From TrEMBL:
PANTHER family: POLYPHOSPHATE:AMP PHOSPHOTRANSFERASE, POLYPHOSPHATE:AMP PHOSPHOTRANSFERASE-RELATED
NCBIfam families: PPK2_rel_1 (TIGR03709)
Presence of keyword Nucleus: no
Pfam families assigned to the protein according to its UniProt record, in alphabetical order: PPK2
Claim: ATP-binding is one of the keywords in the record: no
Membership in a protein family: Belongs to the polyphosphate kinase 2 (PPK2) family. Class I subfamily.
The protein's name in its UniProt record: Polyphosphate kinase 2 family protein
Top-level taxonomy: Bacteria, Pseudomonadati, Bacteroidota, Sphingobacteriia, Sphingobacteriales
InterPro entries for the chain: P-loop_NTPase, Polyphosphate_phosphotransfera, PPK2-rel_1, PPK2-related
Keywords, alphabetical: Kinase, Transferase
GO MF annotations in UniProt: kinase activity
Provenance organism: Pedobacter montanisoli
Ranges for domain Polyphosphate kinase-2-related: 29-268
Residue ranges the record marks as coiled coil: none
Amino acid sequence: MSTNTTKYLAPTNGKFKLKNFDTDYKGHLDKNTVKEDLAEVKAELSKLQEVLYASGTYSILVILQAMDAAGKDSAIEHVMSGVNPQGCQVYSFKTPSSEEYRHDFLWRHYKSLPERGKIGIHNRSHYENVLVCKVHPEYILSENIGGVSNVKQIDQDFWKNRYESIRSFEKHLTDNGTIVLKFFLYVSKDEQKKRFLERIDDETKNWKFSAGDLKERALWDKYMDAYEEAIKETSTENAPWYVIPADEKWYSRLAVSQILKDTLKSLNLQYPQLPEEEKEQLKSLKKQLLDEK
């Protein structure tokens, strides 16, 4: 299986436009044949993750952002089903707690970073602070930031500083051995409607839907503007954004899996090599085992 993953890359020159990306791109692939491709990618991903874990020199931070029903949960389930749970950790971020509100907006995300040798997945992330909060600036007031006592004070300079904080945060991570992979699962408004209706019609999925989902859907254009601005401001050489077509879940799963696999492969990691004296000791220990009666 081969697909050019660079086509999902958002430009890092500040000229990103969401309209230049498709929600329904599938290339030459189809759902009936892609299962074998995904299984192949996942098998290789499993081997690469084992070397990542053994080497303990890098960590991988996977960030998944999307509108509701775009397939974040299912992407996590399918992409990571082939890796060792011991080397993977998933965090799904909800509304901040009272303790989290008493710290800066990056604090709870920093606490949840993967250690070296592990893959960490953030289902929603620090980007909620320039996405949901951009659409609902009144949420910022809950942070109780000095000098910000009303929505009028949350101006362009405020958002400019917040984007700068994110860029600095991610540069610090990459400078210290964390590979940052940021995915925007780009679903169309029509496809979201279809999936919402499925959640209503299927009793086993009713729990996934609420009236609040429709309230946020009514703000679709504002969210698209917020995503475009956030990606434009924070897609960098060290931490680029990938805009993944998400109208077909099977395609988005394959794309995310392949990018993760290709990234791990590019690190050229090796299993740790023992010093010669320890190798000699292993020979002695092997002989001891073989000599047992």
